[in-house]
Amino acid sequence: MDKIAYSVKEIAEILQINRYTVYEWIKRNKMPHNRTAKNGKILVPASAIEEWLQGVRLVNTLFY
């Protein structure tokens, strides 16, 4: 991952899921995020995505 932060749309494209799923994860605090002060846009730090994906992979290996 080359960027510092990703938008909800970009995350949905990377994970190949609907962006409303990403919004739901954010709403339920299942995905770390920040809102920009200027326009309130949701951004997810790239490092948080990498950590989050590692956690998801770990859970999948433990339960599947």
What does this structure look like?
It is a single chain. With 64 residues, the chain is an alpha+beta fold. The chain has one domain: Multidrug-efflux Transporter Regulator, Chain: A, Domain 2 (Orthogonal Bundle), CATH 1.10.1660. Helix content is 55%, strand content 14%. It has a three-stranded antiparallel β-sheet. A hairpin with a 6-residue loop joins strand 2 and strand 3. The longest helix is centred in the C-terminal third of the chain and has 18 residues. The protein starts with a strand and ends with a helix. The model has no long low-confidence stretch (mean pLDDT 83).
What does this entry show, briefly?
With 64 residues, the protein is of the alpha+beta class. The chain is 55% helix and 14% strand. It has a single domain, classed as Multidrug-efflux Transporter Regulator, Chain: A, Domain 2, CATH 1.10.1660.
